[in-house]
């Protein structure tokens, strides 16, 4: 796994797009700061760039410089839940415009899953992640359900996790308003 992660990091640094397992479903990923790579993902998914994507990180500290305010309630949630939880933060700045929602928000998940944590740790930066499907098509539950068009369009397909036939599901998503208001999105 470590050799594969080194190869993936090289691809990400060169602006490449990867198809990889995450703590939830398989995702299409790239460097979160690379505007051209993010645009490639929108084209692969045939998705409007009006819809933002998710950032995966292994530590909130890696993304905190881009968030105006992180409520304590967010930190409490991150540290207390034992399932994948994506939190939508407001007032994001300093990242590519095609990554941030029109309203200035961005969905971020701190992953606790082994492979994704190792990848992000070795890359030393968060990654973009979006479901490995064409826009408006069913989200694949495992690698075998991923559209071959997606597989052919990315620069690298991670071998780790391909043989896992277990069906995965997307994360829970919440949006925080101020310090104590939470809206459940999914």
Write the layout of secondary structure elements.
Elements: H1 2-13, E1 18-20, E2 27-31, H2 35-45, E3 54-57, H3 72-80, E4 85-89, E5 106-110, H4 114-123, E6 127-131, H5 148-153, E7 156-157, E8 172-177, E9 181-184
Parallel strand pairs: 1-7, 3-5, 4-8
Antiparallel strand pairs: 1-2, 2-6, 3-6, 4-5, 8-9
How would you describe this structure to a colleague?
By secondary structure, this protein is an alpha/beta fold. It has a single domain (2-162), classed as DHBP synthase (Alpha-Beta Complex). The chain has helices at 2-13, 35-45, 72-80, 114-123, 148-153; strands at 18-20, 27-31, 54-57, 85-89, 106-110, 127-131, 156-157, 172-177, 181-184. Helix 1 crosses helix 4 (114-123).
Task: Give a short overview.
26% of the residues lie in helices and 21% in strands. With 186 residues, it is α/β, with parallel strands linked by helices. The chain has one domain: Alpha-Beta Complex (DHBP synthase).
């Amino acid at each position: 796994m470590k050799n594969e992660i080194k190869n993936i990091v090289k691809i990400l640094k060169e602006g490449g797009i990867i198809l990889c397992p995450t703590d939830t479903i398989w995702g299409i990923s790239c460097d979160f700061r690379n505007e051209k790579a993010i645009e490639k993902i929108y084209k692969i998914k045939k998705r409007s760039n009006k819809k933002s994507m998710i950032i995966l990180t292994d530590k909130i500290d890696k993304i905190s410089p881009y968030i105006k305010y992180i409520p304590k309630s967010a930190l409490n949630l991150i540290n207390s839940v034992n399932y994948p939880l994506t939190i939508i933060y407001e007032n994001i700045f300093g990242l590519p415009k095609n990554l941030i929602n029109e309203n200035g928000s961005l969905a971020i998940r701190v992953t606790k899953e082994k492979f994704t944590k190792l990848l992000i740790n070795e890359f030393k930066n968060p990654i973009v992640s979006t479901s490995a499907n064409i826009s408006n098509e069913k989200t694949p539950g495992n690698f075998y359900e991923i559209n071959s068009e997606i597989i052919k369009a990315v620069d690298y397909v991670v071998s780790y996790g391909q043989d896992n036939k277990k069906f995965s599901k997307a994360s829970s998503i919440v949006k925080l308003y101020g310090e104590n208001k939470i809206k459940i999105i999914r």
